[in-house]
Specification:
Layout (H helix, E strand, L loop, with lengths): L2 H10 L6 E8 L10 H15 L3 E9 L11 H12 L4 E4 L2 H4 L3 H13 L3 E4 L4 E2 L5 H15 L1 H19 L11 E4 L4 E4 L1 H16 L4 H10 L6 H9 L6 E4 L2 E4 L8 E4 L6 E4 L8 H19 L20 E2 L8 E4 L7 E4 L10 E5 H67 L4 H30 L4 H19 L6 H7 E5 L6 E5 L4 E4 L19 E2 L6 H7 L7
Parallel strand pairs: 1-2, 1-3, 3-4, 12-16, 15-19
Antiparallel strand pairs: 4-5, 6-7, 8-11, 9-10, 13-14, 14-15, 16-17, 17-18
Helix pairs in contact: 5-6, 8-11, 9-10, 12-13, 12-14
Bound molecules: zinc ion (ZN).
Length: 565
């Protein structure tokens, strides 16, 4: 019986023979996360001892915070070996062999010392008593130790091997799981988390259909008690997983050697491997692409502000944010205050020296009044248009009513055919007919029936398409209500501006051009120089306010920013 077999028997058969044991634990400084695992290693050993009353604990050796790679600085380890050669003991309790040594030479030395002093090792992770006398197992251990010597390397090799396999098989792992999905450890699968998927879908819809921004979406969701930050929202918007496109091999580990830590590094997109999972698609592809386009246009607005045509979809906090542009260079005007107390809103353009357009700012209150005038004008025009719309609608109804004549005509045709059919029936019932005539009569009867069915279908169709005059009055009153609501608006809010104003241009001549969503352009003409009383704020060496005409009464109230209440 080998020593290991002897000890196994003592430990596992409830024997009362004493086994003299020491505990050895070690954590390395390399890994902060391992700090607490030192206590874990010891408590693991203590648990084992508590379960085996015949194990007598002689000493506990802990090398705290010292890397296993450098054995010269493991005082407790050396002390343990000293004790082994001085007094001897039967067993070292340790979590794993890698806790003892990661170096082949050291492990061979330990191996021979253990043999010499009749001791062995019990690894707590598998509760295995190692047999160093068994040549095979000895060989195994030396191989194990040799591998352990390159512990770090091996780990990363394993990692890389599994990574390669995953790429080959296009397998997803827990790391590929994100918000909206669940990872199932048992069968290593990913499924859609219905509740979270609903939120993902909402984020896309808010972003695309309601002009949401990550910040506004964050606020809206937080109000409902869903905690998601704007950063996550903007990541979700870009994440192709939601259309079932998962990418693996996005990162790799750069191996740390010696004292340097291993690093995760990002791989270029060419090296990513696409795993298509159509069953994991949460967001409609079309919606996703719309979101990408919006996202892209938003970046372009800020990255390349020199393009004339681009229109920011960005929904700012300020009334006219992202709506005002210099038509010469295409740069946007941004919200600012013209006074120290920050009560007077203006829109300014910055870094504009190189542009021949010297218009530098416009007051928000003035713009507000201009917009109000514009919208009122449009509404008035609309009510003029309304009467002609009404006329057209009535014409439509009349045309559909005229169908009535056509229908009664068709009905006459139908009853004529029905009469014919009846008389044919009479003839057939008479019986005194040759087979040939009979056949002809039956054929004719069939055609007549078909014709009657057709006519019936046409009549039904025509009758259902008939418009009534109440349709016109209903429609007209709907439109009238909408227009009167528009006419009576008092506050100029951001929604109204987003709904009606496409863009506002401030050309060098001092005009203000307001382009409506309908395509109409309304120009506020430059104010006459001699009408302009406030000399101070104009003509400061090429830097100018916009000069424009406003109705006299609103000018008095509005000039320089006092907002109408
Ligand atoms: Zn410009």
């Amino acid at each position: 019986m080998t020593l290991a077999e002897e000890i196994r028997e003592k430990l596992n058969t409830g024997s009362t023979d004493i086994v003299r044991a020491v505990i050895y634990a070690r954590v390395s400084t390399d890994n902060e996360g391992q700090k607490e695992s030192c206590a874990n290693q010891v408590s693991l050993a203590e648990k084992y001892i508590a379960e085996h009353p015949n194990v007598q604990l002689i000493a506990t050796y802990i090398d705290d915070g010292i890397s296993g790679k450098n054995d010269f600085t493991r005082p407790q380890y050396n002390e343990m070996l000293q004790r082994l050669s001085d007094d001897g003991f039967d067993l070292i309790l340790t979590k794993a062999l890698s806790r003892l040594n990661r170096d082949e030479l050291n492990s061979l030395m330990l191996n021979s010392m253990l043999l010499e002093h009749n001791a062995t090792v019990l690894t707590l992770e598998d509760r295995h008593v190692h047999d160093f006398e068994d040549m095979n197992s000895g060989l195994l251990h030396s191989i194990k130790y040799a591998i352990d010597a390159q512990y770090v390397k091996q780990q990363s090799l394993n990692g890389r091997k599994t990574q390669e396999l995953r790429i080959e098989r296009k397998e997803l792992s827990a790391k590929d799981c994100s918000f909206g999905y669940d990872w199932h450890r048992e069968d290593k699968s990913i499924t859609i988390n219905l509740e979270q998927a609903e939120i993902v879908r909402r984020i896309f819809e808010e972003y695309v259909y309601r002009n949401g921004t990550p910040a506004s979406i964050e606020r809206a969701l937080n109000d409902e008690g869903i905690n998601i930050c704007s950063r996550s929202v903007s990541n979700i918007i870009k994440d192709e997983r939601y259309i079932g496109k998962f990418y693996i091999n996005k990162r790799t580990t750069k191996l740390g050697t010696g004292r340097t830590k291993s690093k995760r590094i990002e791989l270029p997109k060419e090296q990513w491997v696409l795993c298509e999972r159509p069953n994991l698609q949460i967001v409609d592809t079309e919606l996703f692409e719309l979101a990408q386009r919006i996202h892209h246009s938003r970046i372009t607005v800020y990255e390349k502000p020199d393009k004339k045509t681009i229109q920011a979809h960005f929904q700012g906090m300020h009334l006219f944010a992202s709506k005002i542009f210099c038509p010469v260079c295409g740069k946007p005007y941004r919200h600012d205050f013209s006074d120290r107390k920050k009560t007077i809103s203006v829109y300014r353009i910055s870094n504009h020296r190189d542009c021949p357009n010297k218009i530098s700012r416009i007051y928000e209150a003035d713009l507000e009044e201009m917009t109000r005038i514009t919208l009122k004008q449009v509404v008035t025009e609309q009510s003029n248009v309304l009467s002609s719309v009404e006329k057209t609608l009535i014409e439509c109804v009349e045309v559909s009513q005229n169908n009535g004549d056509e229908v009664s005509n068709l009905k006459k045709q139908r009853s004529a055919k029905e009469k014919k059919k009846e008389s044919l029936f009479g003839v057939l019932m008479n019986g005194a007919l040759s087979d040939k005539v009979k056949d002809e009569a039956v054929a004719k009867l069939n055609t007549l029936s078909d014709e009657i069915d057709n006519l019936t279908a046409i009549i039904e169709d025509k009758e259902s398409n008939k418009l009534s005059f109440s349709y016109v009055t209903d429609k007209i009153s709907e439109i009238k209500t909408a227009i009167s609501e528009l006419k009576n608006f008092s506050t100029m809010d951001r929604d109204r501006i987003l709904n009606y104003i496409d863009r506002i241009d401030l050309p060098p001549n001092g005009d203000v051009d307001i382009t409506l969503k309908s395509g109409q352009i309304i120009t506020f003409k430059q104010q006459q120089r001699n009408d302009f009383s406030d000399e101070e704020s104009v003509g400061k060496k090429g830097i100018q306010d916009v000069l424009y005409w406003l109705p006299a009464e609103s000018q008095k109230q509005l000039r320089h920013g006092t907002r109408q209440q």
